[in-house]
Amino acid sequence: MSNDTHTARLQPLGPLDRAVAAALHGRCFDDGWSEAAMTEILAMPGSFGALAQVGDEPVGVVIALAVEPDAEILTLGVLPQFRRRGIARRLLTWVIDRLDDVACQRLLLEVAEDNLAARTLYGKFGFEQVGCRPSYYRRSAGAKAAIVLARTLHGREG
After folding, report:
1. Is the pLDDT of residue 147 over 50?
2. 27-38 per-position pLDDT tens digit
3. Per residue in 55-114, pLDDT tens?
4. How far is CA 55 from the centre of its chain?
5. How far apart are CA 41 and CA 20, in angstroms?
6. Residue 94: what are its φ and ψ, rounded to 5°?
7. Which of 23, 84, 116, 123 registers the highest number of CB atoms within 10 A of its CB?
8. Please, which contacts does 62-66 make with residues 24 or more away whose CB atoms are closer than 8 Å?
């Protein structure tokens, strides 16, 4: 009985995965999205995402939106007990790989100022701060700013 997260399987997020994605999002974040919100987001033109699963258990989710000239990661979350095992890195790589085939020039995302693990990961992928939204995330311990990050997207090189 191995719980090796290196065997985490990524699968594109389909219409039948809305409830699973919403439940997973709610377990990853204090302000999780409802199934209705998930349905609305996934119906937007240019929206795409993936689930990460270990065995039969969904453990991570990413949703992005590609609307030229920019793409944006709307959410990326991994269950707390599966964090720091490379799953977020795989989900982020999956999004960037999918964006190779579109004409978007930048990839944007927001991260809570106190989420140092995520900020470190994004820095390793070449994201740099381009903005800040004060008091964006409401938490029981007080509001935290959203740091807006961006990186240039490069198409496949010959």
Report:
1. yes
2. 998 888 988 999
3. 989 999 999 999 989 999 999 999 999 998 999 999 999 999 999 878 899 999 999 999
4. 21
5. 14
6. -60, -45
7. 23
8. 62/91, 62/92, 62/94, 62/95, 63/13, 63/21, 64/95, 64/98, 64/99, 64/107, 65/41, 66/98, 66/99, 66/102, 66/104
Q: How many residues does the chain have?
A: 158
Neighbours of 122 (CB within 10 A): 24
Domains and CATH numbers, the chain: 5-152 (3.40.630.30)
Where residue 20 falls (left for φ over 0; alpha for ψ -120 to 50; beta otherwise) is: alpha
Sign of the CA dihedral running 91, 94, 100, 103: negative
Q: pLDDT per residue over 3-43, tens digit each?
A: 444 578 999 998 889 899 999 999 998 888 988 999 999 99
pLDDT at 155 over 80: no
Give dist(CA 104, CA 37) in Å, integer.
Answer: 25
